[in-house]
C-alpha cells in the first residue's frame, strides 16, 4: 500500500504534457466519465473521478477543464446506448472515458439472458464510440477490471472478463480510440499486491466496487492515458 501511494504521489507531480508537445488537455475541455456503479461511486469525495478532477484542477486550473460523471448503477452497454444522447452528447464533451463491462458479464453469471452477449457488447461499443466520434470527441475505452481479486484465474468469471476485455481492445483498435487496459493493470498489480490471494480488499471492497486504494489506482491509470 505504501508503495502504491508513493507511486501515485510521484505520478501526480508530473505535468500533463508530451515530450516536445503542448498540453495534452486543451483549454475548455469537457470530460465525461460514462459507466456503471463504479463510475457513479467515482464522483464521491474519494472516488476516481474526483481524484482526476482535483489533479487536473491543481495542475491546469488555467485551462478551465470541466468534468462530469455519468455513471448509473447496474448499467450495461445497452443502457449506455439508450442514454448516450441525454447523459453524454448533450453535455458537448471533448473527451469521453467509457468504463463498462462488469455488469455485462456479472449479470449473466446465473442466467445469460440477464447479461450482454459478446456480439451485443461489441456492436454496442462500436455504436457508442461512433456517435461520440461523430460529435468530434476523443474516446478513451477501458477494459472491465475485476469480479474478484484472486490471482491466477482463481475467480469464477475471470475467463469471461478476459473474453470481454479482448473485445474492448479490438474495438478500441478498430475505432482508433485510446485504450485504458484496466483489466491488465489490475491483474498485473494483484499478482504482487495480493500475497494472501484474497477475494477482495486490495483494490475493491466487495470484489467489484473500488475501495479508496482502487479509486486512486484507477485514477492513476486514466490520468496516464489522458496525458497521451
**Strand order, biggest sheet?**
2-1-3-4-5
Indicate the structural class. Answer: alpha/beta
**Which percent range describes the beta-strand content?**
5-15%
* CATH homologous superfamily placement: SGNH hydrolase
Q: How many strands?
A: 5
Number of helices: 9
Overview of this structure, please?
The protein contains 9 helices and 5 strands, in the order H-E-H-H-E-H-E-H-H-E-H-E-H-H. It has a 5-stranded parallel beta sheet, sandwiched between helices. The chain has helices spanning 2-12, 37-42, 48-60, 77-87, 102-106, 118-134, 158-175, 182-193, 212-226; strands spanning 30-35, 66-71, 95-99, 138-142, 178-180. The chain starts with a helix and ends with a helix. The model is unreliable at 1-23 (pLDDT under 50). The chain is an alpha/beta fold. The relative contact order is 0.16. The protein has a single domain, classed as 3-Layer(aba) Sandwich (Rossmann fold). The longest helix is centred in the last third of the chain and has 18 residues, at 158-175. Helix 1 runs parallel beside helix 9 (212-226), helix 3 crosses helix 9 and helix 6 (118-134) packs parallel to helix 7 (158-175).
Amino acid at each position: 500500500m505504501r508503495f502504491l501511494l508513493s507511486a501515485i504521489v510521484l505520478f501526480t507531480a508530473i505535468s500533463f504534457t508530451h515530450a516536445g508537445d503542448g498540453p495534452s488537455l486543451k483549454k475548455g475541455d469537457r470530460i465525461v466519465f460514462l459507466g456503471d456503479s463504479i463510475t457513479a461511486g467515482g464522483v464521491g469525495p474519494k472516488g476516481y473521478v474526483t481524484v482526476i478532477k482535483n489533479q487536473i484542477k491543481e495542475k491546469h486550473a488555467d485551462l478551465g477543464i470541466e468534468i462530469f460523471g455519468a455513471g448509473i448503477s447496474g448499467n450495461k452497454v445497452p443502457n449506455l446506448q439508450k442514454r448516450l444522447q441525454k447523459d453524454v452528447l448533450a453535455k458537448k464533451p471533448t473527451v469521453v472515458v467509457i468504463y463498462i463491462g462488469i455488469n455485462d458479464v456479472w449479470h449473466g453469471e446465473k442466467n445469460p439472458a440477464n447479461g450482454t452477449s459478446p456480439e451485443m457488447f461489441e456492436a454496442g461499443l462500436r455504436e457508442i464510440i461512433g456517435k461520440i466520434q461523430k460529435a468530434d470527441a476523443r474516446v478513451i475505452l477501458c477494459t472491465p477490471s475485476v469480479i474478484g481479486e484472486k490471482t491466477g484465474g482463481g475467480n469464477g468469471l475471470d475467463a469471461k472478463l478476459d473474453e470481454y476485455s479482448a473485445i474492448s481492445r479490438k474495438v478500441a483498435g478498430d475505432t482508433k480510440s485510446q485504450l485504458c487496459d484496466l483489466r491488465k493493470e489490475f491483474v498485473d498489480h494483484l499478482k504482487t499486491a495480493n500475497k494472501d490471494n484474497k477475494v477482495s480488499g486490495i483494490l475493491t471492497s466487495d470484489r467489484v466496487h473500488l475501495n479508496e486504494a482502487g479509486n486512486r489506482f484507477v485514477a492513476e491509470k486514466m490520468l496516464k492515458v489522458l496525458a497521451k
